[in-house]
Amino acid sequence: MDSSMDFVELTKLSQQDDRILYNLFFGPNFPGMHGNFGYILECSGSTIVTVKTNPGLLHRGFEKLMEQRTWIQNISLIPRICVVDPDPNEVAYCMAIEKIAGIDVPERALYLRTITLELSRITSLLLGMGALGAMMGLYTNMYLMVSDRDIVLDLFEWLTGARIYHIYNLPGGVRRDLPEGWIDKCLSVLDVLEKHLPEYDKLLFENPVIQKRLSGIAPLTSEEAINNGLVGPNLRATGYKADLRKDAPYAAYKDLDFEIKTQSAGDGLARALQARSEYELAINLVRQALDKLPKGEIRRPVGNPLKFRVPPGDAYAACESSKGEYGYYVVSDGGYSPYRVSVRGPSLPAGLSLCHKQLPGMLIDDVAIWMAGLGVCPPDFDR
User: Fold this and answer.
1) Nearest alpha carbon to residue 233 among 121, 353, 356
2) Domain containing 47: what range?
3) Residue-wise pLDDT tens digits, 162-186
4) Residue 254: which H helix or E strand, with range?
5) pLDDT, tens digit, for every residue of 209-241?
6) Among 143, 128, 146, residue whose Cα is nearest residue 34
7) Residue 116 and residue 247 share a domain
8) pTM summary value
9) Going by DSSP bridges, is the β-strand pair 173-174/169-170 parallel, antiparallel, or unpaired?
């Protein structure tokens, strides 16, 4: 073999000022990638020069698939649009159907939706904060948070029969009531989560190494965040107070007492601290909803689910997920299946658009931190 042949030739694109530009495939199998997705990074040394997105590697075409399934069957499909926080998809989809059909959801069902939505938020934030620590080598924090997430998933398994895709919501309410003893177990789980918060603070949020690592990473102003379509915690981390739970209350949020907290710096550290405050708020909201949970029906009868029809019409409904606004625009022509469904996901603006503005100039080792801090969820791209 010619010794002059160098492996760099395999990825060499050009020679500029004696510095070699090369392609680095970041995902889908790269350990820092958050799902079946990829970036093709053109780099000079360790600095990113340009970035190309490489989506389409996960289950695709949810919106089109929904036209081929019945209204009820779709509830088992849509949680996959955001695996780590599936319940907002169920609730937003059902709310849109209920708007078109004029279905009045019982009060108890609204509370049960709120409880499961906030528990789903907790599981998502635990995984997200744990992943953020792991991307900086802090695996102790990740192991603790994933362990805490598992005991919340135990609650979902007891209530719905499933740990990840719960398929708990139906047009008109929820699928089943709380099992006997579930509330006491839930309260004990919340006690454990709150007990571990000081440890999380010492390991991650107050860690001087982590603070230095995240400070100044991909800063955004409120105007930049809005112009780029960012919502939820990413927008609130810039100091902009916007939250659907307050601005357009749904489920039982109108009956709960809470304030929306924000950060101001808009950088990686601000986003991490915002996630921490959202986590603590979610625990508080579950406690309030359990304390105020009314008695009564959990579902309005809609007849045979296989022959369920929605009157002709269209509606948009949205939920505040752990990553921001998840919205469903649903169109019905009066048949057994939706005529059209369009999903507004919170990850697409950051993962497919903002990356072109922020990643160039950053280091390779900042990409995973950038994704974890923004809560990018790749299934949202392939829907």
Assistant:
1) 121
2) 1-60+349-383
3) 999 999 999 999 999 999 999 999 9
4) none
5) 889 999 989 999 999 999 999 999 999 999 999
6) 128
7) yes
8) 0.91
9) antiparallel
